[in-house]
Write a sequence for this structure.
């Protein structure tokens, strides 16, 4: 078996940790907390101890904040040791101050909803719906483009309307005939 080696700060060669697909890496990846660059973490605790894992982004950020606040390490030194920029440090600190450890978990990236279908355009789309009829998302997208000069994907319209295939039915009042009682 061939082993890989890396060099520590003193220049001695040490066996390289094998971070390939183990269960912890898979779990961190699934949770979105896998550090994209664990090799940039140079804090000795993360190199020598198995408890400190440079792949765990939340643990790395928490330890970086702890080093500055408890150990009185300067921010520039901490950011160098943990392989992040100073703005990243201050963003992590602000998130931690607001939400605690949960604030260090990365947020999902990208849009949080149908940003093109709001207000007037959404009202226009809803007005075009016919109760009980299938939603014609392609036709609605064409109408929106003609009316507002905004290109909207048909699936965006379906999602904005709740992902339903048909427009909601309008409840019809049912009149009941009085029942006759048998004696």
């Amino acid at each position: 078996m061939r082993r890989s080696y890396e060099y520590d700060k003193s220049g001695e060669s040490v066996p390289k940790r094998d971070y390939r697909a183990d269960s912890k890496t898979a779990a961190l990846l699934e949770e979105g907390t896998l550090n994209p660059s664990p090799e940039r973490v140079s804090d000795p605790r993360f190199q020598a101890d198995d408890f400190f894992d440079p792949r765990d982004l939340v643990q790395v950020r928490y330890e970086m904040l702890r080093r500055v606040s408890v150990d009185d390490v300067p921010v520039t030194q901490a950011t160098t040791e943990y392989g992040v920029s100073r703005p990243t440090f201050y963003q992590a600190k602000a998130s931690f101050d607001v939400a605690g450890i949960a604030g260090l978990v990365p947020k999902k990236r990208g849009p949080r909803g149908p940003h093109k279908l709001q207000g007037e355009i959404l009202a226009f789309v809803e007005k075009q719906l016919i109760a009980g009829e299938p939603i014609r998302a392609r036709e609605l997208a064409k109408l929106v483009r003609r009316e507002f000069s905004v290109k909207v994907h048909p699936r965006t319209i379906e999602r904005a309307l709740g992902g339903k295939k048909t427009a909601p039915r309008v409840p019809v009042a049912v009149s009941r005939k009085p029942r006759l009682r048998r004696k």
In short: The first strand starts at residue 5 and ends at 7. The mean pLDDT is 82. The chain is about 40% helix and 5% strand.
